[in-house]
Amino acid sequence: MTDRALQPTIATQLTAHILNHHPRPLSESELNTAFSSPAISADLSEALKELVDNGTLIKKTLQFGPDNELTLFRYNEKRPTIIDDTPPSQPTQEGPDPELTLLRDQVETLRAEQTQLLSTFDSDFDVDTYVDAHIKRLHHYNEIKDVGQMIIGKCAEQEGTTTREMYTTFGLEEDD
């Protein structure tokens, strides 16, 4: 009988791999989308819990009012990679599989790119602080946009016309 701790599930391996190689925190719904197999996505919550418990992932829940929250997961860079995603070499009589060689080259290129991108960040760069600040800016933007919508609505009401016509009057697109 194999010990489950020594044999991570496919969902655990895939979740760790995606978050280890993704440049920003991901929500559970984004991870569900990444797993097209129902068998894997069914184990996703358990896999996320396991990876948070063992320190591989960092979980952060953001509150947007009393009933709205968003849970993000990111790879813990301070913990060494637990999943070796390099396939074991299997010598064949014909030589290495060209597709496998191409994939290994792509992995090597992506790792070099990741290292180069990570080196552009300051060592004290904090993703959580950046995400929190970005969310605050989005809230501020939405508040300003809501005020603008109310003003355009009041102008339309005073002019006895529609909001759509006011957009045209002010030279705005409908998706502004």
UniProtKB/TrEMBL annotation:
InterPro entries xrefs: DNA-repair_Swi5 (IPR010760)
Pfam family name, one: Swi5
Record's keyword annotation contains DNA repair: yes
GO biological process: double-strand break repair via homologous recombination
Record bears the keyword Mitochondrion: no
Region of interest (Disordered), ranges: 78-97
Domain of life (superkingdom): Eukaryota
GO cellular component, one term: Swi5-Swi2 complex
Keyword list, A-Z: DNA damage, DNA repair
Family: Belongs to the SWI5/SAE3 family.
Name of this chain's protein: Swi5-like zinc finger protein
Organism listed in the record: Rhizophlyctis rosea
